Fold ABC transporter permease subunit.
Amino acid sequence: MGLFFRYVGENWSYLLELTFDHVMMVLTGLALALLAGIPLGIAAASNRRLGKIILLLANIVQVFPSLALLVLLMIVFGLGFTTVVIGLFLYSLLPIIRNTYVGLTQVDPAISEAGRGVGMSTAQLLFRVQLPLALPFVLTGIRISAVIAIGVATIAPLIGGEGLGREIYAGINMDNPARLYAGAVPAALLALLADSLVGLLQKGINRGRSA
């Protein structure tokens, strides 16, 4: 452990740069997954037949081993940031789609009928009633996606990406445990931090509703 702390002390600025690159890849992929996943989840909930197709396709993507998927994407998009972000986007989709779908289908039909009874349009009912009620489920999807994306991003260096995976693979290739831990420990902490922050947000929303 002494070697690890010494290495971190001597290279902290470089490790911060790698951490920043890692976070940017994850946030970009996750943001794209949110932009696509929530509408797809809404579409799946509004049309059960379409929903089966959407969930099936998202499940197929999730079944692909992460490295195999990134290599296939590399063939099409080349090496670097863009390929990694597309891979993280695809891997983040399923939890967001599925949890949005589940959250919307769990809304009490009586509440939806009451909204229609007071003259709400379909869009008003969705954005003012159904989505707010489904929000805890959506946040669960985001929570899962964030943790998955942080883990998958560690293999980004294999296809020309940046991030903490550079230290992990350098440590493996050079048989240097200090470098391996210098990449693995921050990546694990990022996953725990993301999980905790979204979890706190969920608890805050639940407390607000029960108050």
User: Anything to note?
Assistant: The mean pLDDT is 89. The first helix runs from residue 2 to 46.
